[in-house]
Design goal:
The chain has helices spanning about 15-25, 55-70, 90-100, 115-130, 150-160, 170-175, 180-185, 205-215, 225-235, 245-250, 255-275, and strands at about 5, 30-35, 75-80, 105-110, 135-140, 165-170, 190-195, 240. The chain has about 280 residues and is α/β, with parallel strands linked by helices. Strand 5 (about 135-140), helix 5 and strand 6 (about 165-170) form a beta-alpha-beta unit. The chain is globular, with a radius of gyration of 17 Å. The protein starts with a strand and ends with a helix.
C-alpha cells in the first residue's frame, strides 16, 4: 500500500502536535505541516492556516516529539510562497525550520504577477534548497498568474532555470484546469507528490472554486475525478497527500479523527480499485 500523508489543510484548526495525533489514530503514515511566517504575503494572511511553526521553537519541538512518539513522518513543509514581498532572509528562515524538523520536501506556490521577478525568486529558492539537500515542489492552479496548468508547469520546468524543481499535482487543480490522465503520464518523472480529493469536473466561478479548495472538497471516490487512473499514473516514489477540508463535517460536530478516518477510508478504496 502506498504511503499516505494527511495534508495540513484537512485538519487546519488543529495545532501540529494534535494533528499528528489525529493522523496516527486515523491510520496515516505521514503529515504535511505549514510553516507560516513572513513568506506569506499580506493578501494571503486571512486564508493562511493558524499555528505557524516559524518563530515558535517550542511548537516545533512539541511537533517533532509527537511525530517521534507516534511514528508519523513529517513529509512536507508548506508555505513557501514567491510573491512581490519575497525576501531571501524569509526564505532562509523557512528552510531553517525544514532542516531543524528534518523535512526534505517543500511545497511552493507563486502569486507574483511579474514574470521576471518571479523567475529570480524561484530560481534563488531552488538554489538555496539544493545547497541544503531539500526538494522544492511547485503547485499549479488555474487561478494563479503563472503555473496555471500541468502543461504550462511542465514547460517551465523544462526551461531548466529552476534547478531541482519538481511538481506537486493537486488533482482538484489538475481536473479543473483541463488536465488529463494522459497529461499526468507524460510528466510523471517530474512529480514528487500529489494532493488527492474529489469533486465535480465542471469548473465553477473563481470565488466558488477558491471556497471549495479551501473549505469543502469531496472525499476520494465520492466525486467525478478519475482518481484511479491518476493514482496509477503516479511514479512509485510520489507521496499521496489527502487534502480534503470538510467544513460541513466540522459544523456537524464530527471530531478530527473521524473526519481523517473517513477521508483515508475513501482513498484506500480508490487505491484498491486502482490496483485491480
Amino acid at each position: 500500500m502506498r504511503h499516505i500523508s494527511l495534508a495540513c489543510l484537512t485538519l487546519v484548526e488543529l495545532p501540529p502536535p494534535q494533528m499528528i495525533s489525529a493522523a496516527a489514530d486515523a491510520g496515516y503514515q505521514g503529515v504535511s505541516l505549514t510553516a507560516g511566517g513572513p513568506l506569506i504575503p499580506a493578501s494571503m494572511q486571512t486564508i493562511s492556516p493558524p499555528h505557524p511553526l516559524v518563530g515558535d521553537r517550542k511548537l516545533r519541538r512539541a511537533t517533532m516529539a509527537r511525530a517521534k512518539d507516534t511514528g508519523i513522518k513529517l513529509d512536507l513543509l508548506e508555505g513557501l510562497v514567491t510573491s512581490a514581498d519575497f525576501t531571501s532572509a524569509a526564505c532562509r528562515e523557512f528552510m531553517d525550520v525544514a532542516e531543524e524538523m528534518d523535512i526534505k520536501h517543500l511545497a511552493a506556490v507563486n502569486v507574483d504577477t511579474d514574470r521576471g521577478r518571479m523567475s529570480e525568486s524561484l530560481a534563488a529558492t531552488c538554489e538555496m534548497a539544493g545547497q541544503r539537500g531539500l526538494i522544492v515542489n511547485i503547485e499549479f492552479m488555474p487561478l494563479l498568474p503563472f503555473f496555471t496548468s500541468v502543461e504550462e508547469t511542465a514547460k517551465m520546468l523544462g526551461e531548466k532555470i529552476f534547478p531541482g524543481l519538481t511538481m506537486m499535482v493537486d488533482v482538484l487543480h489538475l481536473c479543473r484546469s483541463g488536465g488529463t490522465v494522459e497529461d499526468m503520464s507524460k510528466i510523471a518523472p517530474l512529480v514528487t507528490g500529489s494532493q488527492f480529493s474529489d469533486g465535480a469536473l465542471a469548473r465553477p466561478s473563481d470565488e466558488r472554486y477558491l471556497h471549495q479548495a479551501m473549505y469543502e472538497r469531496d472525499i476520494p471516490g465520492e466525486g467525478a475525478f478519475p482518481l484511479e487512473e491518476i493514482f496509477n499514473a503516479l511514479p512509485d516514489q510520489a507521496i499521496v497527500y489527502l487534502e480534503v477540508p470538510k467544513k460541513s463535517f466540522r459544523d456537524r460536530g464530527l471530531d478530527a479523527v473521524e473526519r481523517a478516518r473517513r477521508i483515508l477510508d475513501g482513498m484506500r478504496r480508490v487505491e484498491a480499485m486502482a490496483r485491480h
